[in-house]
Design brief:
The complex is a heterodimer of chains A (348) and B (294). Chain A is mostly helical and 348 residues long. Chain A contains 14 helices and two strands; from the N terminus they run ααααααββαααααααα. With 294 residues, chain B is mainly alpha-helical. The chains are: A mainly alpha (348), B mainly alpha (294). Chains A and B meet through α6, α9, α11 and α13 of A and α4, α9 and α11 of B.
């Protein structure tokens, strides 16, 4: 819904992402803010923001394959793991630089993801969801049992370097993560406005009809899985070089549920929704982390170490509430809010 | 050969429990078109209720059994009324995610309650071991297995011959048509959830008898889902057979491959099997192939 008196007089204006000068101001100010964020925020907050940005990259990938292309995938953590391990092995065992290992790990995860997504050519719906869970467990099992990955002890990738400058702290790593995240968001946003993105949406809405209209199902489904897992791989590589430690426990089925949950909370098929969903869940986690001990003081029967279990409970409860009361997610709430203030004093 | 028979038998006995869980999931799917993962938690809580009555309060076996089943039924009713009822008319995928959310929510509560410890049933079944030509089988496992089979038979007969069962099958075929034929679809949904929660309670008792009430117990629900999909989601008999097949396959592959790769085959055998079978038969072993149109 556009406010009264806003017309698109040229084609360029019609397809623009950033539409008005107000948008431009907000965009420029927020990017400047993002660049100065480590100077303003405390150490803890910066690492929180890093975590949010990495999750945003993963969930952007999931949004492409699930929200836009309609192929349910619970296997995303496996591809994050593949990205993390590829990049860690390349840098520690083969002496690659991080800057080369980053794209390679994305491509590696993408290729494995294409194999993992291959069942989508024949099956769909719940069958596909279960097969992605199966892919996830098999991948993690292989990682644990391979020699080169260090098994359960994991692997310790070095921090990225330019010359002698080493990105070894949260604040320094923040800039790499932030820039990659911005680039990936821009790519995802534009991809969905292209021929490829429209093909994805057609497959989601009715794959049979899409095929009849000339969309090559096999090609586009595999492409969706490739792009989605490429995102996961990039995020995994960043995660590994930021933590400087990877173990198989960092990639559990719980993470798959958190990624899917972020899409539910944020809203299916919406790029801003990814940001809303991930931020919401991460803040919920922080809230439980801070509030858990206080809650345990007031209600002693909860027990001494409730943070993890309270987090899971709160997460489940939030998902239930969202599915019942706002199934289209925070992105939809945001849209209705925008429409209501643009049309004020009229009701939309 | 003795090894093989041993693996086969232990697999069959575990498979009986998988079958029961899978049959429950198929029951819910057939009536409501919802694939439920929440039953993994429902069965854990069923087992927990039973443990509470027999271990905590020290009630006799039959009373605790009935009370646990009754309480599980109430749980199923609550789940249906509070979470699944508002989703009628929404896409099925939302309901699927809802069962996931219930799984997470109950998992958190379970963790809060267990505090990292496991709960074991007091020995209420005969613990003896039957030995025959070098093959040994625990008696309580046999009893669990027989319970599952009996429950499966009761369910099948219920579906075939009672009025409610017929209503469920009609609902499974088409909601609107069933409604116009005088079937109360919403009541059917409620009954299905209550029944399935009760069945889950039985499965939970059988499973907890083997592996104690601990964090891994709810993941029997995921195993049950795999079995249901192997069997084809549509067929109760298929789910039962697939459960036995999976149990046997898991035990045999773990028995023979574990020494070669250094353990842990048990964890992935089910998933590998699922991937292969879905590639060959996309609708499971006994599923109906749906013909689609635009």
């Amino acid at each position: 819904m556009r406010p009264c008196g806003v017309f698109d007089k040229t084609y360029e204006k019609d397809i623009a992402i950033v539409r008005t000068w107000q948008h431009w101001t907000i965009l420029v100010i927020s990017i400047i803010f993002l660049f100065f964020l480590p100077f303003i925020f405390s150490y803890h907050l910066v690492s929180l923001v890093n975590q949010i940005f990495i999750n945003v990259i993963v969930v952007l990938g999931l949004q492409i394959v699930m929200g836009y292309c309609g192929q349910i995938s619970f296997g995303q953590p496996a591809f994050v793991a593949i990205g993390a391990y590829t990049s860690a092995i390349l840098t520690t065992k083969f002496g690659f630089s991080f800057w080369l290992a980053l794209p390679i790990s994305g491509i590696m995860a993408g290729i494995v993801g294409m194999i993992g997504g291959a069942p989508s050519l024949r099956i769909k719906g719940f069958y596909l969801a279960m097969s992605t869970i199966a892919t996830f467990f098999v991948t993690i099992w292989v990682i644990v049992h391979l020699k080169i990955t260090g098994g359960n002890t994991g692997i310790t990738p070095p921090p990225p370097q330019i010359g002698n400058f080493s990105f070894d702290s949260d604040e320094r790593m923040y800039y790499i993560i932030m820039l990659v995240m911005l680039g990936m968001t821009y790519f995802a946003r534009n991809l969905m406005r292209s021929r490829v993105g429209r093909a994805f949406v057609a497959i989601r809405d009715n794959d049979l009809a899409a095929e009849v209209m000339g969309v090559n199902l096999y090609y586009y489904k595999l492409l969706a899985f490739f792009i989605s897992c490429f995102y996961a791989g990039i995020a995994g590589s960043l995660l590994g070089h930021w933590y400087m430690a990877i173990t198989p426990e960092q990639f559990s089925l719980m993470h798959a549920l958190i990624y899917v949950g972020a899409i539910i909370v944020g809203g299916m098929g919406s790029i801003p929704g990814v940001f809303f969903g991930v931020t919401f869940l991460q803040l919920l986690d922080e809230l439980v982390l801070f509030g858990g001990p206080k809650l345990a003081e007031t209600f002693p029967w909860i027990g001494s170490a409730p943070a993890a279990s309270l987090g899971v409970t709160a997460f489940g409860l939030v998902l239930i509430v969202f599915l019942i009361f706002e199934p289209r997610g925070l992105a939809h709430s945001w849209e209705t809010f925008k429409a209501s203030y643009r049309l004020y004093p009229f009701k939309s | 050969m003795t090894n093989f028979v041993q693996f086969f038998l232990s697999g069959l006995l575990v498979g009986g429990i998988y079958s029961l869980v899978a049959v429950i999931i198929v029951l819910v799917y057939k009536a409501t078109r919802v694939v439920s993962i929440a039953h993994g938690q429902l069965l854990t809580f069923g087992a927990l209720f039973f443990w509470f009555f027999i271990g905590g309060l020290g009630l006799p076996l039959w009373i605790s059994f009935l009370l646990a089943i009754l309480l599980s039924g109430c749980g199923g009713f609550l789940v249906e009324r509070l979470t699944m009822r508002p989703l009628i008319g929404q896409p099925l995928f939302a309901a699927f995610l809802m069962t996931f959310s219930i799984f997470m929510f109950l998992n958190g509560i379970l963790q809060l309650y267990l505090q990292g410890q496991s709960r074991a049933f007091p020995p209420f079944l005969p613990k003896g071991v039957i030995k025959f030509e070098g093959v040994s089988v625990a008696q309580d496992q046999i009893i669990s297995f027989i319970t599952s089979v009996v429950f499966f038979l009761v369910l099948t007969l219920f579906f075939k011959y009672t009025k409610v069962g017929l209503g469920m099958r009609a609902t499974a075929e088409h909601h609107t048509l069933a409604q116009s034929a005088g079937v109360r679809v919403r009541t059917i949904f409620t009954i299905v959830w209550i029944l399935s929660a009760m069945g889950a309670c039985v499965a939970g008792m059988a499973a907890a008898n083997i592996m104690d009430i601990h964090y891994p117990l709810p993941f029997i629900g995921i195993k049950g889902l795999i079995v249901a999909i192997l069997g084809g989601l549509e067929s109760i008999g298929g789910a039962f057979l697939a459960g036995l097949i999976l149990g046997v396959f898991e035990n045999i592959s773990a028995g023979y491959l574990d020494p070669l790769v250094g353990g842990g085959v048990m964890e992935v055998a089910a998933y590998v099997m699922l991937l292969f079978i879905l590639l060959v038969k996309p609708y499971g072993l006994f599923g109906l192939k749906r013909i689609e149109r635009i």
